[in-house]
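lol so apparently i was supposed to do this last week
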Amino acid sequence: MCGIIGYLGSRDATSILIDGLRRLEYRGYDSAGVAVLERTGVQSVVKRAARVETLVEALQERMPEGRLGIGHTRWATHGRPTQVNAHPHTDCRGRISVVHNGIIENFEELRAELRRAGHRFASDTDTEVVPHLIEEYYRGDFLAAVRQALARIRGAYALVMFCLDDPELLVGARLNAPLVVGLGEGEYFIASDIAALLPYTRKVLVLGEGEIAAVTPLGASVTALDGMPAPTRVLHVSWDTEQAERGGHPHFMLKEIMETPEAAANALRGRLDDQGRVHFAELELPDERLQGLAEVRLLGMGTSRHAAMVGEQLIEAWAGLPARAQDASEFRYRPALVGPDTLVVAVTQSGETADTIVALRQARQQESATVAVTNVVGSTIAREADGVIYLHSGPEIGVASTKTLVAHLVSLGLLALRLGELRGVADRRQGLVRELRELPALIRQVLDDGPRLAELARRYAGYRNFLFVGRGLGHPVALEGALKLKEISYLHAEGTSGGELKHGPIALLDRDTPVVAVCTEGPSWEKLLNNVHEVAVRGAPVLALVPRGERALADVATDVLELPRSGELGSAVLATVALQLFAYHVAVGLGRDVDRPRNLAKSVTVE
Ligand code: G6P
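anyway here it is w/ 6-O-phosphono-alpha-D-glucopyranose bound
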Protein backbone atom coordinates (compact mmCIF):
# COMPACT_ATOMS: atom_id res chain seq x y z
CA MET A 1 0.00 0.00 0.00
CA CYS A 2 2.11 2.85 -1.30
CA GLY A 3 1.28 6.53 -1.70
CA ILE A 4 1.21 8.01 -5.19
CA ILE A 5 0.77 11.49 -6.59
CA GLY A 6 0.92 12.99 -10.07
CA TYR A 7 0.68 16.62 -11.21
CA LEU A 8 0.01 18.41 -14.50
CA GLY A 9 -0.55 22.16 -14.47
CA SER A 10 1.19 25.50 -14.58
CA ARG A 11 2.85 25.50 -11.17
CA ASP A 12 6.17 24.04 -10.09
CA ALA A 13 5.55 20.27 -10.10
CA THR A 14 8.40 19.31 -7.76
CA SER A 15 7.17 21.32 -4.79
CA ILE A 16 3.63 20.03 -5.26
CA LEU A 17 4.90 16.45 -5.43
CA ILE A 18 6.97 16.91 -2.26
CA ASP A 19 3.97 18.34 -0.43
CA GLY A 20 1.79 15.45 -1.64
CA LEU A 21 4.37 12.86 -0.58
CA ARG A 22 4.59 14.35 2.90
CA ARG A 23 0.84 13.96 3.21
CA LEU A 24 0.95 10.41 1.89
CA GLU A 25 3.87 9.21 3.95
CA TYR A 26 1.57 7.38 6.38
CA ARG A 27 0.77 4.95 3.51
CA GLY A 28 4.36 3.81 3.14
CA TYR A 29 7.68 5.09 4.26
CA ASP A 30 10.57 2.83 3.35
CA SER A 31 11.52 4.78 0.21
CA ALA A 32 10.39 7.76 -1.83
CA GLY A 33 11.00 9.19 -5.28
CA VAL A 34 9.85 11.60 -7.97
CA ALA A 35 10.12 11.90 -11.75
CA VAL A 36 9.68 15.34 -13.30
CA LEU A 37 9.56 16.30 -16.96
CA GLU A 38 11.88 19.31 -17.00
CA ARG A 39 11.39 22.41 -19.14
CA THR A 40 14.48 21.37 -21.08
CA GLY A 41 12.62 18.26 -22.23
CA VAL A 42 14.63 15.83 -20.13
CA GLN A 43 13.26 13.74 -17.34
CA SER A 44 14.77 13.86 -13.85
CA VAL A 45 14.26 10.90 -11.58
CA VAL A 46 15.38 11.26 -7.97
CA LYS A 47 14.80 8.55 -5.38
CA ARG A 48 16.00 7.50 -1.97
CA ALA A 49 15.62 4.38 0.17
CA ALA A 50 14.56 6.53 3.11
CA ARG A 51 11.78 8.74 4.33
CA VAL A 52 10.42 11.66 2.33
CA GLU A 53 12.59 14.22 4.15
CA THR A 54 15.76 12.53 2.89
CA LEU A 55 14.39 12.74 -0.64
CA VAL A 56 13.62 16.43 -0.09
CA GLU A 57 17.24 17.06 0.97
CA ALA A 58 18.44 15.39 -2.22
CA LEU A 59 16.03 17.44 -4.33
CA GLN A 60 17.03 20.70 -2.68
CA GLU A 61 20.51 20.33 -4.13
CA ARG A 62 18.89 20.81 -7.53
CA MET A 63 15.15 21.12 -7.82
CA PRO A 64 13.91 19.68 -11.13
CA GLU A 65 11.92 22.41 -12.87
CA GLY A 66 8.81 21.32 -14.70
CA ARG A 67 5.05 21.31 -14.82
CA LEU A 68 4.46 17.57 -15.09
CA GLY A 69 5.63 14.93 -12.65
CA ILE A 70 4.88 11.91 -10.49
CA GLY A 71 5.92 10.91 -6.98
CA HIS A 72 5.78 7.83 -4.79
CA THR A 73 6.26 6.82 -1.20
CA ARG A 74 6.86 3.11 -0.92
CA TRP A 75 5.80 0.27 1.31
CA ALA A 76 7.79 -2.59 -0.19
CA THR A 77 6.00 -5.71 -1.44
CA HIS A 78 8.36 -7.17 -4.05
CA GLY A 79 12.01 -6.35 -3.65
CA ARG A 80 13.79 -4.95 -0.59
CA PRO A 81 13.56 -1.24 0.24
CA THR A 82 16.59 -0.02 -1.75
CA GLN A 83 17.20 2.98 -3.99
CA VAL A 84 16.91 1.01 -7.25
CA ASN A 85 13.69 -0.61 -6.05
CA ALA A 86 12.19 2.80 -5.15
CA HIS A 87 9.70 4.25 -7.62
CA PRO A 88 9.36 5.84 -10.20
CA HIS A 89 10.48 3.07 -12.55
CA THR A 90 11.36 3.73 -16.16
CA ASP A 91 11.66 1.89 -19.47
CA CYS A 92 14.98 1.06 -21.20
CA ARG A 93 15.32 4.51 -22.78
CA GLY A 94 14.22 6.44 -19.71
CA ARG A 95 11.29 8.04 -21.55
CA ILE A 96 8.38 6.43 -19.72
CA SER A 97 8.01 6.83 -15.93
CA VAL A 98 5.63 4.89 -13.74
CA VAL A 99 4.62 4.82 -10.08
CA HIS A 100 2.53 1.95 -8.75
CA ASN A 101 0.57 0.80 -5.73
CA GLY A 102 -0.54 -2.83 -5.72
CA ILE A 103 0.80 -6.20 -6.78
CA ILE A 104 1.36 -7.42 -10.32
CA GLU A 105 0.77 -11.14 -10.03
CA ASN A 106 2.18 -12.26 -13.36
CA PHE A 107 5.27 -10.04 -13.27
CA GLU A 108 7.78 -12.90 -13.39
CA GLU A 109 6.25 -14.28 -16.56
CA LEU A 110 6.08 -10.79 -18.14
CA ARG A 111 9.64 -9.95 -17.11
CA ALA A 112 10.95 -13.17 -18.69
CA GLU A 113 9.09 -12.36 -21.90
CA LEU A 114 10.35 -8.77 -21.95
CA ARG A 115 13.92 -9.89 -21.25
CA ARG A 116 13.73 -12.21 -24.25
CA ALA A 117 12.62 -9.19 -26.29
CA GLY A 118 15.78 -7.34 -25.18
CA HIS A 119 14.54 -5.23 -22.25
CA ARG A 120 16.96 -4.63 -19.39
CA PHE A 121 15.69 -4.47 -15.82
CA ALA A 122 17.32 -2.52 -13.02
CA SER A 123 15.21 -3.51 -10.00
CA ASP A 124 13.65 -6.54 -8.32
CA THR A 125 10.19 -4.99 -8.33
CA ASP A 126 7.02 -6.22 -9.96
CA THR A 127 6.32 -2.60 -11.02
CA GLU A 128 9.24 -2.33 -13.41
CA VAL A 129 7.53 -4.59 -15.94
CA VAL A 130 4.94 -1.85 -16.49
CA PRO A 131 7.14 0.82 -18.15
CA HIS A 132 8.89 -1.87 -20.19
CA LEU A 133 5.61 -3.38 -21.32
CA ILE A 134 4.33 0.06 -22.34
CA GLU A 135 7.61 0.67 -24.19
CA GLU A 136 7.16 -2.63 -25.98
CA TYR A 137 3.76 -1.55 -27.31
CA TYR A 138 4.57 2.14 -27.88
CA ARG A 139 4.20 3.25 -31.50
CA GLY A 140 3.73 6.98 -30.90
CA ASP A 141 0.42 6.82 -29.01
CA PHE A 142 1.14 6.64 -25.28
CA LEU A 143 -2.44 6.06 -24.17
CA ALA A 144 -2.91 3.22 -26.64
CA ALA A 145 0.31 1.59 -25.41
CA VAL A 146 -0.84 1.91 -21.79
CA ARG A 147 -4.11 0.18 -22.68
CA GLN A 148 -2.34 -2.66 -24.43
CA ALA A 149 0.05 -3.09 -21.51
CA LEU A 150 -2.71 -3.11 -18.91
CA ALA A 151 -4.57 -5.78 -20.82
CA ARG A 152 -1.61 -8.09 -20.12
CA ILE A 153 -1.39 -7.40 -16.39
CA ARG A 154 -3.01 -9.55 -13.71
CA GLY A 155 -3.24 -8.34 -10.14
CA ALA A 156 -3.96 -5.07 -8.45
CA TYR A 157 -2.77 -1.65 -9.46
CA ALA A 158 -3.11 2.06 -9.07
CA LEU A 159 -0.69 3.48 -11.64
CA VAL A 160 0.30 7.00 -12.61
CA MET A 161 2.59 7.54 -15.56
CA PHE A 162 3.84 9.85 -18.28
CA CYS A 163 6.04 9.74 -21.37
CA LEU A 164 8.58 12.33 -22.52
CA ASP A 165 7.15 12.25 -26.04
CA ASP A 166 3.77 13.43 -24.75
CA PRO A 167 4.61 16.33 -22.44
CA GLU A 168 0.97 17.33 -21.91
CA LEU A 169 -0.44 13.99 -20.86
CA LEU A 170 -0.63 12.40 -17.41
CA VAL A 171 -2.24 8.97 -17.23
CA GLY A 172 -3.72 7.13 -14.24
CA ALA A 173 -5.25 3.65 -14.10
CA ARG A 174 -6.75 1.54 -11.36
CA LEU A 175 -7.79 -2.02 -10.62
CA ASN A 176 -8.37 -3.21 -7.05
CA ALA A 177 -6.44 -0.26 -5.60
CA PRO A 178 -7.73 3.25 -5.04
CA LEU A 179 -6.98 6.21 -7.30
CA VAL A 180 -8.56 9.66 -7.51
CA VAL A 181 -8.17 12.61 -9.87
CA GLY A 182 -8.17 16.10 -8.33
CA LEU A 183 -9.67 18.78 -10.56
CA GLY A 184 -8.10 22.19 -9.85
CA GLU A 185 -8.24 25.50 -11.73
CA GLY A 186 -6.25 24.69 -14.86
CA GLU A 187 -4.29 22.03 -13.00
CA TYR A 188 -4.83 18.35 -12.29
CA PHE A 189 -3.64 15.84 -9.74
CA ILE A 190 -3.84 12.06 -9.60
CA ALA A 191 -3.32 10.46 -6.20
CA SER A 192 -3.77 7.25 -4.28
CA ASP A 193 -5.91 9.11 -1.84
CA ILE A 194 -7.69 12.33 -1.17
CA ALA A 195 -5.32 13.40 1.64
CA ALA A 196 -2.70 14.46 -0.93
CA LEU A 197 -5.07 16.75 -2.80
CA LEU A 198 -6.80 18.70 -0.05
CA PRO A 199 -4.65 21.85 -0.09
CA TYR A 200 -5.21 22.22 -3.84
CA THR A 201 -8.75 21.13 -4.61
CA ARG A 202 -11.81 19.56 -3.10
CA LYS A 203 -13.26 18.57 -6.44
CA VAL A 204 -12.40 14.92 -6.87
CA LEU A 205 -13.13 12.45 -9.61
CA VAL A 206 -13.11 8.89 -8.28
CA LEU A 207 -11.90 6.33 -10.81
CA GLY A 208 -13.82 3.05 -11.03
CA GLU A 209 -12.28 -0.42 -11.28
CA GLY A 210 -10.50 -1.01 -14.56
CA GLU A 211 -10.72 2.64 -15.60
CA ILE A 212 -8.07 4.87 -17.11
CA ALA A 213 -7.91 8.65 -16.67
CA ALA A 214 -6.12 10.68 -19.35
CA VAL A 215 -5.34 14.16 -18.07
CA THR A 216 -4.29 17.01 -20.39
CA PRO A 217 -4.33 20.81 -19.89
CA LEU A 218 -7.86 20.70 -21.36
CA GLY A 219 -9.31 18.34 -18.76
CA ALA A 220 -9.60 14.75 -17.62
CA SER A 221 -11.28 12.02 -19.62
CA VAL A 222 -12.09 8.60 -18.26
CA THR A 223 -12.36 5.42 -20.27
CA ALA A 224 -12.58 1.70 -19.64
CA LEU A 225 -9.61 -0.52 -20.54
CA ASP A 226 -11.07 -1.08 -24.01
CA GLY A 227 -11.19 2.67 -24.68
CA MET A 228 -14.96 3.08 -24.27
CA PRO A 229 -15.89 6.29 -22.38
CA ALA A 230 -16.83 5.64 -18.74
CA PRO A 231 -19.30 7.66 -16.65
CA THR A 232 -17.49 10.08 -14.34
CA ARG A 233 -18.27 10.56 -10.66
CA VAL A 234 -17.18 13.93 -9.29
CA LEU A 235 -17.36 14.49 -5.53
CA HIS A 236 -16.95 17.56 -3.41
CA VAL A 237 -14.87 16.59 -0.36
CA SER A 238 -15.36 18.32 2.96
CA TRP A 239 -12.85 16.28 5.04
CA ASP A 240 -9.95 17.85 6.90
CA THR A 241 -6.46 16.43 6.38
CA GLU A 242 -6.53 14.06 9.33
CA GLN A 243 -9.90 12.68 8.36
CA ALA A 244 -8.64 12.17 4.82
CA GLU A 245 -5.63 10.14 6.01
CA ARG A 246 -8.03 7.88 7.81
CA GLY A 247 -10.13 7.56 4.65
CA GLY A 248 -12.92 9.49 6.36
CA HIS A 249 -12.99 7.10 9.34
CA PRO A 250 -12.62 8.49 12.87
CA HIS A 251 -9.68 6.16 13.66
CA PHE A 252 -6.96 4.26 11.82
CA MET A 253 -8.09 1.13 13.62
CA LEU A 254 -11.52 1.32 12.02
CA LYS A 255 -10.02 2.15 8.63
CA GLU A 256 -7.75 -0.86 8.94
CA ILE A 257 -10.58 -3.17 9.98
CA MET A 258 -12.50 -1.94 6.93
CA GLU A 259 -9.44 -2.82 4.81
CA THR A 260 -9.55 -6.46 5.95
CA PRO A 261 -11.26 -7.85 2.82
CA GLU A 262 -8.45 -6.28 0.75
CA ALA A 263 -5.80 -7.62 3.16
CA ALA A 264 -7.23 -11.15 2.86
CA ALA A 265 -7.37 -10.82 -0.93
CA ASN A 266 -3.77 -9.53 -1.05
CA ALA A 267 -2.55 -12.45 1.06
CA LEU A 268 -4.19 -14.86 -1.41
CA ARG A 269 -3.36 -13.03 -4.62
CA GLY A 270 -1.11 -15.00 -6.95
CA ARG A 271 -0.73 -17.85 -4.47
CA LEU A 272 -3.43 -20.29 -5.51
CA ASP A 273 -3.41 -21.58 -9.07
CA ASP A 274 -6.42 -22.98 -10.95
CA GLN A 275 -5.66 -26.49 -9.68
CA GLY A 276 -5.69 -25.19 -6.11
CA ARG A 277 -1.91 -25.57 -5.70
CA VAL A 278 -0.12 -23.06 -3.47
CA HIS A 279 2.82 -20.92 -4.66
CA PHE A 280 4.89 -18.61 -2.49
CA ALA A 281 7.34 -16.47 -4.45
CA GLU A 282 9.72 -15.74 -1.58
CA LEU A 283 9.54 -19.04 0.31
CA GLU A 284 12.97 -20.13 -0.73
CA LEU A 285 13.06 -23.47 1.08
CA PRO A 286 13.50 -26.41 -1.29
CA ASP A 287 10.57 -28.84 -1.47
CA GLU A 288 12.81 -31.72 -0.31
CA ARG A 289 13.55 -29.84 2.91
CA LEU A 290 9.86 -29.25 3.55
CA GLN A 291 9.02 -32.87 2.70
CA GLY A 292 11.50 -34.14 5.29
CA LEU A 293 10.02 -32.17 8.20
CA ALA A 294 9.14 -33.94 11.43
CA GLU A 295 7.44 -30.99 13.17
CA VAL A 296 6.60 -27.30 12.97
CA ARG A 297 6.99 -24.67 15.69
CA LEU A 298 5.21 -21.36 15.32
CA LEU A 299 6.58 -18.50 17.39
CA GLY A 300 5.03 -15.10 18.02
CA MET A 301 3.92 -12.57 20.61
CA GLY A 302 0.61 -10.87 21.34
CA THR A 303 -1.87 -11.07 18.49
CA SER A 304 0.72 -12.88 16.39
CA ARG A 305 0.90 -15.63 19.00
CA HIS A 306 -2.82 -16.15 18.57
CA ALA A 307 -2.29 -16.37 14.81
CA ALA A 308 0.42 -18.96 15.54
CA MET A 309 -2.09 -20.98 17.59
CA VAL A 310 -4.46 -21.05 14.63
CA GLY A 311 -1.54 -22.03 12.38
CA GLU A 312 -0.70 -24.90 14.74
CA GLN A 313 -4.17 -26.40 14.38
CA LEU A 314 -4.28 -25.89 10.61
CA ILE A 315 -0.89 -27.52 10.02
CA GLU A 316 -1.88 -30.53 12.08
CA ALA A 317 -5.29 -30.84 10.42
CA TRP A 318 -4.41 -29.95 6.84
CA ALA A 319 -0.87 -31.33 6.57
CA GLY A 320 -0.85 -34.10 9.19
CA LEU A 321 2.34 -32.68 10.69
CA PRO A 322 2.85 -32.22 14.44
CA ALA A 323 2.81 -28.50 15.19
CA ARG A 324 3.13 -26.34 18.26
CA ALA A 325 2.61 -22.63 18.78
CA GLN A 326 4.82 -21.00 21.38
CA ASP A 327 5.30 -17.70 23.05
CA ALA A 328 8.59 -16.61 21.46
CA SER A 329 9.84 -15.08 24.71
CA GLU A 330 9.41 -18.42 26.50
CA PHE A 331 10.86 -20.50 23.68
CA ARG A 332 14.15 -18.70 23.97
CA TYR A 333 14.71 -19.53 27.63
CA ARG A 334 13.97 -23.22 27.31
CA PRO A 335 16.24 -25.90 25.92
CA ALA A 336 15.74 -25.55 22.18
CA LEU A 337 14.68 -29.07 21.33
CA VAL A 338 14.42 -28.30 17.66
CA GLY A 339 16.69 -29.49 14.90
CA PRO A 340 17.20 -29.72 11.14
CA ASP A 341 13.88 -31.51 10.66
CA THR A 342 11.94 -28.74 12.44
CA LEU A 343 10.33 -25.88 10.56
CA VAL A 344 10.28 -22.78 12.75
CA VAL A 345 7.74 -20.21 11.62
CA ALA A 346 8.23 -16.68 13.00
CA VAL A 347 4.80 -15.03 13.02
CA THR A 348 5.23 -11.26 13.24
CA GLN A 349 3.51 -8.29 11.66
CA SER A 350 6.44 -5.92 12.08
CA GLY A 351 9.31 -8.37 11.71
CA GLU A 352 11.00 -6.46 14.53
CA THR A 353 9.64 -7.91 17.77
CA ALA A 354 12.72 -8.48 19.92
CA ASP A 355 11.61 -11.76 21.50
CA THR A 356 10.68 -13.25 18.14
CA ILE A 357 14.02 -12.18 16.62
CA VAL A 358 16.01 -13.86 19.38
CA ALA A 359 13.88 -17.03 19.21
CA LEU A 360 14.40 -17.19 15.45
CA ARG A 361 18.18 -16.86 15.88
CA GLN A 362 18.16 -19.66 18.40
CA ALA A 363 16.27 -21.92 15.98
CA ARG A 364 18.78 -21.11 13.26
CA GLN A 365 21.62 -22.09 15.55
CA GLN A 366 19.93 -25.47 15.90
CA GLU A 367 19.89 -25.66 12.08
CA SER A 368 16.11 -25.63 11.85
CA ALA A 369 14.51 -24.44 8.63
CA THR A 370 13.02 -21.00 9.28
CA VAL A 371 10.22 -19.02 7.66
CA ALA A 372 9.02 -15.52 8.52
CA VAL A 373 5.38 -14.64 7.99
CA THR A 374 5.49 -10.86 8.13
CA ASN A 375 4.12 -7.66 6.69
CA VAL A 376 7.36 -5.70 6.50
CA VAL A 377 9.68 -6.35 3.58
CA GLY A 378 13.31 -6.08 4.57
CA SER A 379 12.54 -6.23 8.32
CA THR A 380 15.08 -7.97 10.57
CA ILE A 381 13.11 -11.21 10.71
CA ALA A 382 12.40 -11.18 6.96
CA ARG A 383 16.14 -10.82 6.32
CA GLU A 384 17.30 -13.44 8.77
CA ALA A 385 14.81 -16.24 8.07
CA ASP A 386 15.54 -18.76 5.30
CA GLY A 387 12.25 -17.99 3.58
CA VAL A 388 9.53 -15.36 3.81
CA ILE A 389 5.79 -15.22 3.29
CA TYR A 390 4.77 -11.58 3.03
CA LEU A 391 1.32 -10.49 4.13
CA HIS A 392 1.03 -7.65 1.57
CA SER A 393 -1.39 -5.79 3.86
CA GLY A 394 0.11 -2.31 3.59
CA PRO A 395 1.12 -0.38 6.71
CA GLU A 396 -0.89 -0.87 9.85
CA ILE A 397 -0.91 2.28 11.96
CA GLY A 398 -3.33 1.44 14.78
CA VAL A 399 -1.27 -0.06 17.60
CA ALA A 400 -3.57 -3.06 18.01
CA SER A 401 -3.16 -5.43 15.06
CA THR A 402 -6.33 -6.00 13.04
CA LYS A 403 -6.11 -6.49 9.26
CA THR A 404 -2.64 -8.04 9.51
CA LEU A 405 -3.98 -10.71 11.88
CA VAL A 406 -6.44 -11.79 9.22
CA ALA A 407 -3.67 -11.75 6.62
CA HIS A 408 -1.63 -13.94 9.00
CA LEU A 409 -4.50 -16.42 9.36
CA VAL A 410 -4.94 -16.62 5.58
CA SER A 411 -1.18 -16.97 5.00
CA LEU A 412 -0.82 -19.69 7.62
CA GLY A 413 -3.77 -21.47 6.00
CA LEU A 414 -1.91 -21.36 2.69
CA LEU A 415 1.26 -22.63 4.37
CA ALA A 416 -0.70 -25.54 5.87
CA LEU A 417 -2.14 -26.34 2.45
CA ARG A 418 1.33 -26.20 0.88
CA LEU A 419 2.80 -28.53 3.49
CA GLY A 420 -0.16 -30.86 2.99
CA GLU A 421 0.42 -30.81 -0.77
CA LEU A 422 4.07 -31.79 -0.30
CA ARG A 423 3.07 -34.60 2.03
CA GLY A 424 0.41 -35.92 -0.31
CA VAL A 425 -2.55 -34.95 1.90
CA ALA A 426 -5.26 -34.32 -0.64
CA ASP A 427 -8.56 -34.81 1.18
CA ARG A 428 -10.86 -31.78 1.52
CA ARG A 429 -8.40 -29.73 -0.51
CA GLN A 430 -10.86 -28.28 -3.03
CA GLY A 431 -13.22 -27.30 -0.22
CA LEU A 432 -10.45 -25.55 1.72
CA VAL A 433 -9.34 -23.65 -1.36
CA ARG A 434 -12.92 -22.53 -1.97
CA GLU A 435 -13.21 -21.50 1.68
CA LEU A 436 -10.13 -19.29 1.38
CA ARG A 437 -11.24 -17.74 -1.88
CA GLU A 438 -14.67 -16.85 -0.52
CA LEU A 439 -13.26 -15.13 2.54
CA PRO A 440 -12.87 -11.52 1.29
CA ALA A 441 -16.54 -11.40 0.27
CA LEU A 442 -17.71 -12.97 3.55
CA ILE A 443 -15.60 -10.55 5.61
CA ARG A 444 -17.34 -7.72 3.77
CA GLN A 445 -20.67 -9.10 4.97
CA VAL A 446 -19.44 -8.97 8.59
CA LEU A 447 -18.31 -5.37 8.09
CA ASP A 448 -21.73 -4.53 6.68
CA ASP A 449 -23.11 -5.65 10.04
CA GLY A 450 -21.10 -2.86 11.73
CA PRO A 451 -24.17 -0.99 13.07
CA ARG A 452 -25.40 -4.15 14.85
CA LEU A 453 -21.94 -4.63 16.42
CA ALA A 454 -21.90 -0.99 17.48
CA GLU A 455 -25.27 -1.44 19.14
CA LEU A 456 -24.14 -4.61 20.96
CA ALA A 457 -20.99 -2.80 22.09
CA ARG A 458 -23.09 0.02 23.54
CA ARG A 459 -25.03 -2.50 25.58
CA TYR A 460 -21.95 -4.30 26.89
CA ALA A 461 -19.65 -1.32 27.47
CA GLY A 462 -20.98 -0.88 31.02
CA TYR A 463 -19.47 -4.16 32.29
CA ARG A 464 -16.00 -4.28 33.82
CA ASN A 465 -15.05 -7.96 33.36
CA PHE A 466 -15.51 -10.24 30.37
CA LEU A 467 -14.86 -13.89 29.71
CA PHE A 468 -14.34 -15.10 26.12
CA VAL A 469 -14.74 -18.78 25.43
CA GLY A 470 -14.18 -20.96 22.36
CA ARG A 471 -13.09 -24.43 21.28
CA GLY A 472 -10.95 -25.65 18.40
CA LEU A 473 -10.00 -22.67 16.23
CA GLY A 474 -12.50 -20.71 18.30
CA HIS A 475 -10.13 -20.97 21.27
CA PRO A 476 -7.38 -18.69 19.89
CA VAL A 477 -10.18 -16.48 18.50
CA ALA A 478 -11.55 -16.16 22.06
CA LEU A 479 -8.08 -15.34 23.42
CA GLU A 480 -7.66 -12.70 20.74
CA GLY A 481 -11.16 -11.28 21.35
CA ALA A 482 -10.22 -10.80 25.00
CA LEU A 483 -6.81 -9.34 24.13
CA LYS A 484 -8.27 -6.83 21.70
CA LEU A 485 -10.89 -5.72 24.20
CA LYS A 486 -8.42 -5.22 27.05
CA GLU A 487 -5.79 -3.55 24.85
CA ILE A 488 -8.00 -0.75 23.67
CA SER A 489 -10.81 -0.45 26.23
CA TYR A 490 -8.77 -1.20 29.40
CA LEU A 491 -11.60 -3.45 30.60
CA HIS A 492 -10.57 -6.72 32.11
CA ALA A 493 -11.11 -9.60 29.72
CA GLU A 494 -9.77 -13.10 29.62
CA GLY A 495 -10.12 -15.96 27.21
CA THR A 496 -10.40 -19.66 27.88
CA SER A 497 -11.08 -22.90 26.07
CA GLY A 498 -14.50 -24.38 26.65
CA GLY A 499 -12.92 -27.38 28.35
CA GLU A 500 -10.98 -25.26 30.84
CA LEU A 501 -14.05 -23.26 31.77
CA LYS A 502 -15.09 -25.64 34.53
CA HIS A 503 -11.55 -25.76 35.92
CA GLY A 504 -11.46 -22.22 37.21
CA PRO A 505 -12.85 -19.37 35.09
CA ILE A 506 -16.46 -20.35 35.78
CA ALA A 507 -15.90 -19.18 39.38
CA LEU A 508 -15.72 -15.62 38.06
CA LEU A 509 -19.18 -15.67 36.58
CA ASP A 510 -22.16 -13.74 37.87
CA ARG A 511 -24.67 -11.37 36.31
CA ASP A 512 -22.04 -8.64 36.03
CA THR A 513 -19.56 -10.76 34.05
CA PRO A 514 -20.66 -11.37 30.48
CA VAL A 515 -19.42 -14.31 28.44
CA VAL A 516 -18.63 -13.89 24.77
CA ALA A 517 -19.05 -17.37 23.27
CA VAL A 518 -17.26 -17.95 19.97
CA CYS A 519 -19.49 -20.72 18.61
CA THR A 520 -17.69 -21.35 15.36
CA GLU A 521 -18.28 -24.48 13.35
CA GLY A 522 -16.13 -27.46 14.20
CA PRO A 523 -16.05 -30.89 15.79
CA SER A 524 -16.63 -29.58 19.33
CA TRP A 525 -19.74 -27.58 18.49
CA GLU A 526 -22.04 -29.64 20.75
CA LYS A 527 -19.64 -29.32 23.67
CA LEU A 528 -19.53 -25.58 23.22
CA LEU A 529 -23.31 -25.37 23.31
CA ASN A 530 -23.15 -27.17 26.66
CA ASN A 531 -20.68 -24.55 27.86
CA VAL A 532 -23.09 -21.78 26.93
CA HIS A 533 -25.87 -23.48 28.90
CA GLU A 534 -23.53 -23.83 31.89
CA VAL A 535 -22.66 -20.14 31.97
CA ALA A 536 -26.21 -18.97 31.27
CA VAL A 537 -27.65 -20.86 34.26
CA ARG A 538 -25.14 -19.06 36.45
CA GLY A 539 -26.72 -15.81 35.45
CA ALA A 540 -23.92 -14.51 33.23
CA PRO A 541 -25.13 -12.49 30.23
CA VAL A 542 -24.09 -14.32 27.05
CA LEU A 543 -23.20 -12.82 23.69
CA ALA A 544 -22.98 -15.78 21.30
CA LEU A 545 -21.40 -15.61 17.84
CA VAL A 546 -23.05 -18.32 15.74
CA PRO A 547 -23.25 -19.40 12.09
CA ARG A 548 -26.09 -17.74 10.19
CA GLY A 549 -29.49 -19.38 10.72
CA GLU A 550 -28.36 -21.33 13.81
CA ARG A 551 -31.21 -21.41 16.35
CA ALA A 552 -29.73 -23.67 19.05
CA LEU A 553 -28.84 -20.77 21.36
CA ALA A 554 -31.77 -18.50 20.57
CA ASP A 555 -33.41 -19.06 23.97
CA VAL A 556 -30.22 -19.42 25.99
CA ALA A 557 -27.96 -16.54 24.99
CA THR A 558 -28.79 -12.94 25.88
CA ASP A 559 -27.70 -11.81 22.43
CA VAL A 560 -26.89 -13.75 19.31
CA LEU A 561 -24.73 -12.39 16.52
CA GLU A 562 -25.05 -14.40 13.32
CA LEU A 563 -22.02 -14.65 11.07
CA PRO A 564 -21.88 -15.89 7.48
CA ARG A 565 -21.43 -19.64 7.16
CA SER A 566 -18.00 -20.84 6.13
CA GLY A 567 -15.58 -23.64 6.96
CA GLU A 568 -13.63 -23.84 10.21
CA LEU A 569 -10.92 -21.36 9.28
CA GLY A 570 -13.37 -19.05 7.54
CA SER A 571 -15.63 -19.00 10.60
CA ALA A 572 -12.66 -18.25 12.85
CA VAL A 573 -11.64 -15.34 10.63
CA LEU A 574 -15.16 -13.93 10.53
CA ALA A 575 -15.53 -14.15 14.31
CA THR A 576 -12.13 -12.45 14.69
CA VAL A 577 -13.24 -9.51 12.56
CA ALA A 578 -16.55 -9.24 14.44
CA LEU A 579 -14.73 -9.19 17.79
CA GLN A 580 -12.31 -6.52 16.54
CA LEU A 581 -15.28 -4.32 15.65
CA PHE A 582 -16.93 -5.12 18.99
CA ALA A 583 -13.78 -4.11 20.92
CA TYR A 584 -13.43 -1.00 18.79
CA HIS A 585 -16.96 0.20 19.51
CA VAL A 586 -16.70 -0.58 23.23
CA ALA A 587 -13.44 1.41 23.44
CA VAL A 588 -14.84 4.35 21.45
CA GLY A 589 -17.91 4.35 23.70
CA LEU A 590 -15.62 4.64 26.71
CA GLY A 591 -13.71 7.50 25.10
CA ARG A 592 -10.41 5.59 24.82
CA ASP A 593 -7.57 6.52 22.48
CA VAL A 594 -8.05 3.42 20.31
CA ASP A 595 -5.19 4.09 17.89
CA ARG A 596 -2.66 4.71 20.67
CA PRO A 597 -3.77 2.80 23.76
CA ARG A 598 -1.90 3.65 26.95
CA ASN A 599 1.29 1.72 27.77
CA LEU A 600 1.35 -0.20 24.48
CA ALA A 601 3.66 0.05 21.48
CA LYS A 602 3.10 -1.01 17.89
CA SER A 603 6.36 -2.85 17.83
CA VAL A 604 8.08 -4.07 21.00
CA THR A 605 11.75 -3.92 20.07
CA VAL A 606 13.13 -4.54 23.55
CA GLU A 607 12.87 -7.80 25.45
C1 G6P B 1 2.78 -5.42 20.17
C2 G6P B 1 1.55 -4.91 19.42
C3 G6P B 1 0.61 -6.09 19.08
C4 G6P B 1 1.37 -7.17 18.33
C5 G6P B 1 2.64 -7.61 19.08
C6 G6P B 1 3.52 -8.51 18.23
O1 G6P B 1 2.38 -5.91 21.40
O2 G6P B 1 0.86 -3.98 20.20
O3 G6P B 1 -0.48 -5.62 18.30
O4 G6P B 1 0.53 -8.26 18.13
O5 G6P B 1 3.42 -6.47 19.42
O6 G6P B 1 4.00 -7.77 17.14
P1 G6P B 1 4.50 -8.38 15.79
O7 G6P B 1 4.95 -7.19 15.00
O8 G6P B 1 5.63 -9.31 16.11
O9 G6P B 1 3.36 -9.09 15.17
